[in-house]
Specification:
The structure is a homodimer.
Chain A: H1 7-27, H2 41-45, H3 57-68, H4 90-102, H5 113-130, E1 137-141, H6 144-157, H7 164-167, E2 178-183, H8 189-196, E3 204-207, H9 217-229, E4 233-240, H10 252-262, E5 265-269, E6 294-297, H11 299-302, E7 310-314, H12 317-324, H13 354-388, E8 393-395, E9 403-408, H14 414-431, E10 437-441, E11 444-450, H15 458-480
Helix pairs in contact in A: 4-13, 5-13, 6-8, 6-12, 13-15, 14-15
Chain lengths: 481, 481
Amino acid sequence: MSRDVSDSELRPALHRVADMIADDLQDVGQYPVMPRVRPGEVASMLPGSPPSEGESLNRILDDYARIIEPNITHWNHPGFLGYFSITGSGPGILGEALSAALNVNAMLWRTSPAATELEERVCDWLRQMLGLPEVFRGHINDTASISTMLALAAARHVQPGLEVRELGLAGRPDIPELVVYTSDQAHSSCDKAAMTLGLGLRQVRRIESDEQFRMRFESLVEAVEADRRAGRRPMAVVATAGTTSTTSVDPIDRIAELCHREGLWLHVDAAYAGSAAICPELRDLFCGWERADSIVFNPHKWLFTPFDCSVLLMRDVDRLKSAFSLVPDYLKTDEEDVTNLMDLGVQLGRRFRSLKLWMVIRAFGVEGLRDRIREHCRMAQDLASLIDEESDFEVVAPVPFSVVCFRWLAGDSPEQQDHRNEALLNEINAQGPVFLSSTKLDGRTTLRTAIGNLKTTDQHIQDAWQIVRSAADRLAADQLR
Amino acid sequence: MSRDVSDSELRPALHRVADMIADDLQDVGQYPVMPRVRPGEVASMLPGSPPSEGESLNRILDDYARIIEPNITHWNHPGFLGYFSITGSGPGILGEALSAALNVNAMLWRTSPAATELEERVCDWLRQMLGLPEVFRGHINDTASISTMLALAAARHVQPGLEVRELGLAGRPDIPELVVYTSDQAHSSCDKAAMTLGLGLRQVRRIESDEQFRMRFESLVEAVEADRRAGRRPMAVVATAGTTSTTSVDPIDRIAELCHREGLWLHVDAAYAGSAAICPELRDLFCGWERADSIVFNPHKWLFTPFDCSVLLMRDVDRLKSAFSLVPDYLKTDEEDVTNLMDLGVQLGRRFRSLKLWMVIRAFGVEGLRDRIREHCRMAQDLASLIDEESDFEVVAPVPFSVVCFRWLAGDSPEQQDHRNEALLNEINAQGPVFLSSTKLDGRTTLRTAIGNLKTTDQHIQDAWQIVRSAADRLAADQLR
C-alpha cells in the first residue's frame, strides 16, 4: 500500500487547489500588492516546532489561505510594477504542476529522454524566435545569475595555457589577473560571478555609461588597453541588452567587434529584454549579439513563464561542456551522442523546466507573444507621455522597452529631491493597488515602473499614474502645512 | 482585459490537470519505469519550429499525454530503484502548483514576507527534526551541488589574509594553493565546486576509504600534514553521511575533532541520508555533525518533497552572507533586521520552495515521516536478506539506510564478472517494472537498489528481486547454450 496521501484525500485537494489557483488569478488584483505585514508577523503565526502527527490536506490548505497567501508580495498582480514585472501565466502553471508530479531529474538523457529532448527543442524554438544563428545551443538554468556565472566560467576555461579547471588559480605566480568588463549599469550577477569564480571584485571593470546609460565604448577600449599595459589579462566583456535600472542597451555591435579583435569572450545579458527580440521591429536594438559567445535570456522575466527559467545560449556548447563535464562511476551510461544536461554546469540535478516553457509558447503562439510584448511597450510609451505632460515630473531615461524611469521634481536640493522621491515611493506602495521600485541614476533616487504582467491593462497604468500624482500632491500639501 | 488565457479555458484545464496528476500517481506503476524510446525519437515528434498562432490548452495537454508523459523516466514510479529513489508526494505537488501560481521571487523580505519567513521557520523545523543545535540557520537552494559550492565559498572567504572576494585568486604570488579533502566515495559536486571556485581539481584530495567505504581517518591526517609541509593551505574537509554509491558514513566525529584542531572548515554532505537523522535511533551515525561549519541536506531526495529543494545549514550564517552579500541600488530597501535571501548565495532570484516542504512536513507529521524512513530502511534490510540467501549473489557493502549494493558472482575473471553484471543490469531495466543503477566499488561493477519512493511496497521489492533472479538465470542459461 502506498504511504503517500490516499487518492481519496489527494484528488479533492488537487481540485481544490485548481480552483484556488483559478480564483487567485482572477482576484489577485483586489489585494494590496505588498502585504501590510511587519517583519516577524508571519513567523509568529507559524508554530515553533513541526507537528508530530500528520494533518489533513484541507486544514493545511486552510492555513495556506489564511497565513501565506495574504502575506506574500503579489508578483502575479496586475499592479505589480516593481523590479521586472513578471507573469506566472495559466499555461505555465499547468506545466509546473505536471512537472512536480512527474518529479523527473533530467541529469542524464537516460533519466528523462522527453525532458532532455524537449529542453533542446524548446531552446531551439527560442533561438529561432530571437533571430539568432543556428550555431547557438540553449539549455535551461534556474537564474541568470547562474547562467552568467557558467558563461564566465567557460570564458575562463578557454584561456590558453591556464588549465584552471585542473590547476585552479591559487598559488600560481605564473598567471595574471583575469579581467571582466561591464558597465556601471550592469546587473550585480556579474560581480557575484567574479567573486565566486575567484576572479575578485577588483577585476570587474565597471565602465562608465553615457547619458543614455549605455556603456561608453571608448572607455571600454581604454580600459582594455590599460589592463594589457599593466600586465593583466582582459578575459571577457558582459554587455547588457536591457539594463536593470533603465533597460538601456550597450553598443553590442561595436563591443562584438572589439571582442573579436582582442580575443575577448562576449557574454550578452539579455535576461529581461531578450523577449523583445522576438519582435522583428525591435531586433535592431540587439544588433551584434549574434556574434556573442554566450547569451542569457530569462523566459521567467518577460515571456510569461513561471519562475524559474533562464536560458543560456552558447555559440560553442562544447566549451561549456569541457569546463564542467565530469562523470562519476554512478552516472556512467551506455548512450552515445546524447545530451546529458548535467554536463553543462555546476548543478547535477535538472528540473523539468522546459515543460512550462513549451506550454507557454504553444498556448500563446509566436504572434501572440509578439502582440503581448508590443502591448507592454506601448503601455510604457503611454505612461511616459502621461508623465511628460506633468511639469513637476520628469522621465529620466529613454524607454526602449517596457520600463519607465521617472523622478518627482520636488525639493530645493538634490538631496531633498532624493528624500522626497523616497517618501513618494513609500506613499505609493502603501496604497495597495500598485507596487513600484526605485534605483539610483547618476547617484539620484529614481522611481521605476516596469510593465510585464499579462493582467496589466491600460486602466491599471492610468490608475497607477493617478496614485502617483495624488500621492505627490498629498506630500506637497503636507510640506506647505 | 487580461491577456492571459481566459478563466473559462484555464479553470477546466486546471481541473483536467488535477485529474491527470491524481491518475498518474495511481497508474504510474503500470508503465515501464524507463521508457522504450531511442535517442532522437521524442525530438522527432516535436515540430522543428514554434507555432505561429496560439493553440488550445486541451490540445497541448493531449500532446503532453501523447508525447511527453510516456517518454519520461518515471522517477515517481514505485519500481524506480536507481540513483537515489525520490518521491514527488501529493502534499508537495500541491505546494509546487500553488507556488507556480503565486510566482513570487523571495529575493528580499519585501518581495515576499511570507516566503522568507516560512523558509526560515521550516528550515528551523528541519534543524529540530535532525537534532542539530540552535545555532544552525538554514536556507533553501536548488541542489546540493550549489549548497556545497556555497559552503566551500564561505570556507574560502574566511581564510585569513586572502580577501578572495575582493582580490580573487589569480595573479597573486603571495597566496598558496587551497586544499579540500574528501573521500574517494564523495559526490562529484565537491569536484565541481573546486573547479568553479578556482581551486582546481588537483587541490581536491580524494582520501582513500576503508573496506566499508568510509574515509580513512589516518590517511586524511597524513594528507593534511603532507600539504602543510609542501606549503599548501588545507582549507576544508567535506565529510559524507551517506555516500552516493553505498551510503557509507565517514567518521565525522573524528574528522570534526581534526578540523577543530587544524582550523579547517567542516562541510557535511548529508544530501541523501540526512533524512535518516530524523529517527533518533539512527542519529548515532551522524555523531559529530553538530560540530560542522555547514551541512547540506536535500528534502527532495528522501523527504518526499518534489525536486528541487536543498537545505544548507550554516553554523554562522554571517560567514555566508559576508561572502556573497552585495546590494545594488535597485534592490535597496528600508527594512532592517530582516533576512534577504539573495544575500545567501550566487542566485538573486529565489523560488518559493519552502511552501511544498511545509506541506510535506505537516501532511505527514514528524512521526509519519519517521515511520516512512524506517519502513524504507527495513525494506532494504529485507532485500539484503533475500540476496544473502542466494549463493551466486553477494551484498557488497553495509546497508545503514535504504540502499543495497550487490553483485552477481558470475564469470571467471573480474572483467568477465563486470561484463556479466552490466549485461544483467540492462536485462533488468529492459523488463520495465523496475529500474536499477550501477556504480563501481574497488573498480568493480556493482548494482544498486535504492528505496525511497512512498509507493514502493514489500511486493515491489519482492518482484524486483524476482526480476533480478530470473534475468540472471536467463543470462546464465544463454551462456551455457
